[in-house]
Amino acid sequence: MEYELIAGGAGYVGSHVNKYLAERGFKTVVFDNLDRGHREFVKWGEFVEGDLADREALRACFRRYPIRSVMHFSAFTYVGESVEDPGKYYRNNVANALNLLSVMREFGTDRFIFSSSCAVFGVPETVPMAEDHPKRPVNPYGRTKWMIEMILEDYARAYGLKYAILRYFNAAGADPDGEIGEWHDPETHLIPLTLDGALGTRPNVRIFGTDYDTHDGTCVRDYIHVFDLAEAHVLALRRLLDGGASDSFNLGNGRGFSVREVIETARRVTGRTIPVIEGSRREGDPPMLVGSSEKAKRVLGWSPRYPDLEVILETAWRWHRLLNSRS
């Protein structure tokens, strides 16, 4: 029996991928230090508590379980924090990924799926952004993702590694069954912050900038449902297992929604009044980030099942109320 290792499988996207894999008959092992993940999210497969900085813990995991492939989600993801403490991000996101790749080589595991980000592109030159868009990340978080992408190319040439790079735009929503969802501390994402406003656990939602060159003056972002991301990971894995070539793919909805549209849709979905405060722009926020997923559709046979913003918010709202009832 062979296993798929999910590094960071107790976190937001990793836990949804774990569920998606398990429901399709894959055997999984979650390796997570629970620094930002949640033990209760590991409801499927095996669990090993460990840190990617600890090569011996990784080796013990690989000895115990025959690992066929690795999916890597164990990264810090706060842009502001990466600017304030870049060393923390380079150690965790880059050095620890190298530890994982090193142990994979020791045990002959040669398939790797990497959770990357549209942050590798930096400020968009064209919209929607395709895979060949120039890579000019503007913060340490984005640079760590871009570094790993380049490392994977080098490992593929030198060591025969087979990889799939999946670049997300804005992961959103929650498991439609309500078993897991988005749970960050601190929370920085617009949709959960807006739902906090609907619940009254947050006094208001702040809009950063209302004078952008967009249809309503607020930033436009591409929101992709977390289960659509999970499906893309499974399709990418199957492609590698079938002997497909290494490649990279952008994963987005293909259209954008403004901050105002997200808040207005949340008001409809929740039936609640959500107070808003309008503020000045944040430094480094581009007016529009929208991805082209045409390559993923063509090569992987993938397309979003939950493209509608209202549906995305409905799944998030069900989860958010449940999470709030536990606290």
Architecture overview:
The chain has 327 residues and is of the alpha/beta class. It is built from ten helices and 14 strands. It has a seven-stranded parallel beta sheet with strand order 3-2-1-4-5-6-11, with helices on both faces. Strands 12-9-14 form a three-stranded mixed beta sheet. The chain has two domains: 3-172 and 224-251, 3-Layer(aba) Sandwich (Rossmann fold); 190-222 and 254-326, UDP-galactose 4-epimerase, domain 1. The model has no long low-confidence stretch (mean pLDDT 96). α8 (259-270) crosses α10. The protein has helices at residues 12-23, 55-64, 79-84, 86-107, 140-159, 190-199, 226-241, 259-270, 294-300, 309-326, and strands spanning 3-7, 28-32, 46-49, 67-72, 111-117, 162-168, 170-172, 205-208, 220-221, 223-225, 247-251, 257-258, 276-279, 288-289.
Question: Which parts are unreliable, with pLDDT below 50 for 5 consecutive residues or more?
Answer: none
Q: Structural class per helix/strand content?
A: alpha/beta
Q: Percent range for helical residues?
A: 40-55%
Number of helices: 10
Give the strand line-up of the largest sheet. Answer: 3-2-1-4-5-6-11
How many discrete structural domains? 2
Q: What CATH architecture of the largest domain do you see?
A: 3-Layer(aba) Sandwich
The name CATH uses for the topology of the largest domain is Rossmann fold
Beta percentage is 15-25%
